[in-house]
Amino acid sequence: MTVQKELSSTTFTSTINGQPRTSPTTAPVYNPATREIITEVPVTTAQQLDETVAAARAAFTGWAATPIEERQSIVSAIGDRLEELAEEFIALLIKEQGKPRAGAEWEVYGSVAWFREIAKQSLPEEVVTDDESRRVVTRYTPLGVVGAIVPWNFPILLAVWKIAPALVAGNTIIVKPSPFTPLCDLKLVEVLQDLLPPGVLSAVSGDDNLGKWMTNHPGIDKIAFTGSTETGKHVMRSAAGNLKRLTLELGGNDPAIVLPDVDPAKVAPQLFWAAFQNNAQFCNASKRLYIHEDVYDAVRDALVDYARTVKVGDGAEDDTQLGPIQNAPQFEKVQEYFADCKENGYAFALGGDIDESESGWFVPVTLVDNPPEDSRLVREEPFGPILPLLKWRDEDDVITRANDTPYGLGATVWGKDLEAVQRIGRQIAAGTVWLNEVHQYSPYQVFGGHKQSGLGAENSLHGLAEYTNWQTITINKTEGAV
Q1: pLDDT tens digit string along 399-452?
Q2: How far, in Å, CA of 74 to CA of 28, rounded?
Q3: Which of 249, 381, 458, 466 is catalytic?
Q4: Active site residue 356
Q5: Model pTM?
Q6: Which one of the listed residues 96, 107, 190, 283 is annotated catalytic?
């Protein structure tokens, strides 16, 4: 095996049937900390997508027939390759996504761990019946060609959450990165080609048209999508044409409930990072902070004090803790929430003013002091560093308020009374409920949303099963049965 110690070049291409491909049209990729163009990437044509799908379908039969132990070994080796190139991927991720080094390290080395751990997973046959007369076995077979549509907030890790189980299960996969953060995913697929047969793992960059072509393409058997709920609905409609299998990890409006027995100074840093990790560009960020009225003022003030110690800046600078908003459309969306709060006269405990003279898409950490429950900031998902702090008194009431949303991705509950923490947590309608912790993920821990936060699951054997069809085989062993 050839060990690649460095990324081959600063040229970024699609990978189709194992080969680098350019396109007649290119699109710019920006550094969000400076708004400067980093490079240009191909805009894949419909014909090129057809070629990619055809190559993936041609490669599927051989890959599906490859013993699972060999597929697992290759996926583990993919993790090794990423680890060898970790420093270069960290630098590239900081440049195109904007996150600081600590966040980039967490994502890259987390991706290494995911490849290695998912490579250990399998779905053995289930023997339902096996007696003298009959044997009934349920087995898991690969789906075919998977289309992975990846978002811009965690472009490497959320690609890996799709690539690793798809390959282990015996599928071929086509990765479409976000047009805002295509560089790491394009380069990752490129540097893995010597580990895989041509066509097994491909990457195509493009605009919104490419996503629509993929979800509608008759040669793609499954779409694994991470993104907004509204876009997820479009994906679902488009995929209905050939009843594609779907995994949809969509938006969230995660509540955090703070009990009256917390130590404000101790809980404030935990609440801060629950809300503002990755500059709140996180589907599982705490987006509504419900604080019991007995400790509301103390927790609010402790949050303000802690937030003032956190540096917002270019992720390439060593002391930066929060980076910029990743792209111009999202920056404009976040600005709308600032404007709405001001127009309605909501009080700011911290922040509130965006400096338009900044070179990058920077937004100050902002805490809004007890806005109305029906405000846009509370009801919607800003996906930026502006957080509503809300008072509560009655336990049943705060549970009702926490659940009063079309979303159900995650939630947290914080308090010393573990009985109360667990009692409240079990009543929250969300796929993951963290109690006195947050953002703990594992390749062995199922992840998915309730309500309009998604469909299907990622990670664990539940997530691996999402890349398979079940098939039941029965045999009548009775002599003279036919």
Answers
A1: 999 999 999 999 999 999 999 999 999 999 999 999 999 999 999 999 999 999
A2: 33
A3: 249
A4: no
A5: 0.96
A6: 283
